[in-house]
Design goal:
Blueprint lengths: L2 H56 L24 E8 L12 E10 L4 E6 L5 E4 L4 E4 L2 H19 L5 E6 H10 L3 E3 L5 E3 L2 E3 L5 E3 L1 H9 L6 H20 L8 H8 L3 E3 L3 H10 L6 E6 L2 E6 L2 E6 L1 H14 L5
């Protein structure tokens, strides 16, 4: 074999290892992808486990004293039916309070997977109504002080003529902690006012931490009274939801879960939460806000909100429609 043939043979032999290096590079990329998928899967599993553990801490059995209005308790895991949730914001934890507290925030949400609609109805805290189970008329927010979640649910069921399927109670300190856990919220005030050392300006988008957001939602004396405060409370909840759904916020899920513990109680099980997430997500595409309204009146030296009968009847009809009670 001459020198040129040896050279060609040598070059031919050197080409094969290059193909192997190319294949090896591709294989290395595949391995990295598999590792990334494994890490993501582990992260998702870890999140799932932590959420499940936290939900077990938040969960509380439905009170024995709560009247079940439906003939059969709703089972959203078996059938996608509209349901209602009573949200109670308790003033325990606010300004250092440690007593039973009152439900200074009272909202009823209905979620309908068939119409893909969610409604949120605010109930004025001073509304004069029958306190079911206490044998008297009083401010509706006193129902919690008299009989906790059960009496609150029974009183709201009686007032709005609908079943309350689930309840969520949050103390006011919880709102502050949750806002901080989601990294703060951005709200555009509808009025100009000052509260607890903070200044808010109408129409000016404002980033708020938990303390500032709580101050914003607390004012009710110079910005539309209790109705103005309820509107700001709805802004607060909307701001929390938007911040919580931000992708970057999800990496702080441990802080969010920690903010719920000790501040939130609910009778929604973990399995129900998964069902709501998987089957009812479309219902939040359209959110309608309703407000029970009336006029203030002094009775025996105590201020009450006397609900307008026509406003109340209109809200009752709408909520019954949303829950498909007349079908």
């Amino acid at each position: 074999m001459d020198r040129r043939e040896q050279t060609r043979s040598s070059r031919h032999r050197r080409r094969k290892p290059r193909r192997k290096r190319k294949f090896g590079c591709f294989g290395f990329i595949v391995v990295l992808l598999l590792i990334a998928i494994g890490v993501a899967g582990f992260y998702a599993w870890n999140v799932y486990r932590n959420v499940e553990q936290t939900t077990a801490v938040l969960y509380t059995e439905k009170p024995e004293g709560q009247v079940l209005v439906r003939e059969e308790s709703i089972d959203i895991q078996q059938e996608e039916k509209p349901f209602s949730v009573l949200l109670l914001g308790i003033d325990t934890g606010d300004m250092g309070r440690v007593d039973q507290g009152r439900s200074d925030v009272m909202m009823v949400a209905t979620v309908n997977p068939n119409t893909n609609r969610t409604t949120i109805t605010s109930i004025p805290r001073d509304s004069l109504t029958d306190i079911v189970g206490y044998g008297t008329q009083d401010k509706i927010n006193h129902a919690y002080a008299f009989g906790g979640v059960a009496m609150s649910a029974n009183t709201v069921q009686n007032l709005l003529e609908i079943p309350i399927d689930f309840t969520v109670s949050v103390n006011m300190q919880g709102f502050e902690d949750i806002v901080d856990a989601v990294g703060g919220i951005t709200i555009t005030p509808t009025d100009t006012f000052s509260q607890d050392g903070y200044q808010f300006y109408e129409g000016q988008s404002t980033f708020m931490d938990g303390t500032m957001a709580l101050a914003y939602s607390r004012n009710r004396y110079d910005t539309g009274g209790d109705y103005g405060r309820q509107a700001r409370q709805r802004q607060l909840i909307d701001g929390i939801l938007h911040s919580a759904l931000n992708v970057s916020t999800l990496w702080n899920y441990n802080e969010i879960l920690a903010s719920l513990q000790g501040n939130v109680q609910t009778d929604i099980t973990f399995d129900d939460m998964l069902t709501i997430f998987n089957n009812y997500r479309g219902a939040i595409d359209i959110i309608e806000n309703y407000q029970l309204s009336g006029s203030g009146s002094m009775i025996d030296g105590v201020y009450y909100e006397i609900l307008d009968p026509s406003s109340l009847a209109e809200v009752i009809d709408q909520l019954q429609y949303e829950l498909e009670l007349n079908n």
